[in-house]
Design brief:
This protein has about 325 residues and is of the alpha/beta class. The strands form 3 sheets. Strands 7-8-9-10-11-12-13-14 form an 8-stranded parallel barrel, surrounded by 7 helices. Strand 9, helix 6 and strand 10 form a beta-alpha-beta unit. Helix 4 packs parallel to helix 5, helix 7 packs across helix 8 and helix 11 runs parallel beside helix 12. The longest helix has 14 residues. The radius of gyration is 23 Å and the shape is elongated. The mean pLDDT is about 95. The site of manganese (II) ion has 5 residues, from loops.
């Protein structure tokens, strides 16, 4: 945003007024005799340009055109297959294996998840694996396994469409189509997913800025998605101590400033089971509308991502902790 001052305006006083509103401001170079120009940094507080126009000494305010009007119009609470997400609704849980392993596996897990209050059954039929030699998912049959397991237990299905060719079968079986981190900027896929007309869970690209993430959401809404729920799953950092770096600042920004429904996936962020619960609690504290947690009855034998999967007893404990708002044993 650029604030233009009236000739003769007291620059230091206007700077003080802007700083008092939490804005980060720097003065721009100008030719002698030209009006003073102040640049408001993009990471500054959210302030209506009209309010700044009312400050004494301000001639005008130029704000960038909104880049994602459809995302902006989507306010905090959305509904997916009858489930409210965000805007103060109960935290929503999306749990299940990394990869769906068999019909029986999906069914048994759903039967154990639903009584915990988990409403979304997650699981990959089409897996985005870094190595072509790693398990790629059971493909289309797994969509039916997920659907039947969810229908038998009163759950909803969220699963990934890895490529354009998967959009139709995924949209037919799922309540929510997941776009994975590696595909956040696959624009042809975003358009195809949007056209399917289903709610979308949009994972953040592992090296995507918040603005790029929101613009990816805009693609989906522009092409027909009724709802986009954003999912923070960790971004790349210089430190390999955790698999990814969970960006809770972005979660707070999306939730509290942009008023968007945002889910956090601590499993892919941490890459290790023992960090999932503390990160999940931190995510809810930062404003997350819910959690996506990889869960497996026998993580040691999971076909993918076993080391980060929570066994059911640990998930049950975490659900209880989030409900009570404190870790088991209380806050020490
Ligand atoms: C997943 O949720 O199964 C997955 C592959 O996640 P991500 O796209 O965040 O890596
Ligand atoms: Mn996984």
């Amino acid at each position: 945003m650029i604030v233009t001052l009236k000739p003769g305006a007291e620059v230091s006083r206007v700077l003080g007024e802007l700083a008092a509103r939490g804005l980060w401001v720097s003065a721009l170079e100008r030719a002698p005799g030209e009006p003073a120009l102040l640049l408001v940094a993009p990471h500054s507080a959210q302030v209506d340009p009209r309010e700044l126009g009312g400050i004494e000494g301000v001639l005008g305010v130029a704000a960038p055109k909104p880049q994602h009007p459809r995302v902006t119009a989507q306010r905090a609470r959305v509904t997916v297959a009858g489930v409210p997400i965000g805007g103060g609704a109960e935290p929503v849980w999306m749990c299940g294996p990394c990869s769906v392993e068999s019909e029986q596996h999906a069914r048994e897990l759903a039967e154990q998840l639903r009584p915990l209050g988990v409403l979304f059954l997650r699981g990959g039929a089409f897996k985005p694996r870094t190595s072509p030699y790693a398990f790629q998912g059971h493909g289309e049959p797994a969509l039916g396994w997920l659907r039947r397991a969810a229908d038998a237990t009163g759950m909803r299905v969220v699963t990934e469409a890895l490529g354009e060719e998967h959009v139709a079968p995924v949209a037919e079986h799922a309540d929510m189509v997941q776009v994975g981190s590696r595909n956040m900027q696959s624009f042809a896929l975003l358009k195809a997913v949007g056209r399917a007309g289903k709610p979308v869970l949009l994972k953040r690209g592992m090296a995507a800025t918040v603005e790029e993430w929101l613009l990816a959401g805009e693609y989906l809404l522009q092409h027909g998605a009724p709802v986009v729920v954003f999912c923070e799953r960790g971004i790349r950092s210089f430190d390999a101590s955790t698999r990814n770096l969970i960006d809770l600042g972005a979660v707070a920004l999306l939730s509290h400033v942009y008023h968007q429904p945002v889910i956090v996936d601590p499993s892919h962020a941490a890459g290790r089971r023992d960090l999932v619960a503390p990160l999940a609690r931190a995510a809810i504290a930062a404003g997350a509308a819910g959690l996506m947690v990889e869960t497996h009855a026998d993580p040691a034998h999971a076909l993918s991502d076993g080391p980060q999967a929570l066994p059911l007893a640990e998930l049950a404990r975490l659900v209880g902790e989030i409900k009570r708002g404190q870790p088991d044993g209380g806050v020490s």
